[in-house]
């Protein structure tokens, strides 16, 4: 299924919030179900946590790191009950984000600044690309979109809609074409380039 387009009159930050709701709800609802009621800390509970993290697109490496750390703390008897385990899980998730959090700073240069969007199917790469293009455009940047996701049905068309909506040029071949040629054709065009690449795992 294609990603739903936001309404025209919705504010920019409201649309970002809406786009993140799906993944956030899947994670929070899943964790909530795991910790519903009084739970005994055991291997089964840790496996349930692992499943929720993986199915919420947290990623294999991050999930493995989190579960291993929780397992060590359980073995050291540092977590007295499921509430303590929940708090430690939240701390681990926040810590992962804080380590990679940084502002998007685009240096002044005659060369293009490339932002490559990568993610599993359905997480909102194309929609986020369109929103990011608008934000950069409003900040005075020259923006060009290049369609790297040429295999998903309607992906190119969806990016073109965002380009038309934001009055941003889109470099794209037909569905199934070599996506590398799009990026090659666009690499010398404008100061800021946002490319959308799908069908890849982070």
**Structural class by SSE content:** alpha/beta
Alpha plus pi helix count: 7
CATH architecture assignment name of the largest domain: 3-Layer(aba) Sandwich
Main sheet properties: 4 strands, parallel
- CATH superfamily annotation of the largest domain: P-loop containing nucleotide triphosphate hydrolases
| Regions with little confidence, pLDDT below 50 for 5+ residues | 179-192, 197-202
Number of domains: 2
Kindly report the spatial arrangement of strands forming the biggest sheet.
1-4-2-3
Q: What distance separates the N and C termini?
A: 20 Å
Shape: elongated
Total strand segments: 4
Report the CATH topology name of the largest domain: Rossmann fold
Give the radius of gyration.
20 Å
Average of per-residue pLDDT values = 74
String of helices and strands: HHHHEHEHEHE
Helix content: 40-55%
Would you write up a description of this structure?
- The structure is a single chain.
- This protein is of the alpha/beta class and 202 residues long.
- The protein is 52% helix and 10% strand.
- It has helices spanning 12-34, 43-55, 60-75, 82-100, 125-138, 155-166, 179-186; strands at residues 113-118, 143-147, 169-171, 192-197.
- The protein has a 4-stranded parallel beta sheet with strand order 1-4-2-3, sandwiched between helices.
- β2, α6 and β3 form a beta-alpha-beta unit.
- The chain is elongated and about 55 Å long.
- It starts with 11 loop residues before the first helix and ends in a 5-residue tail after the last strand.
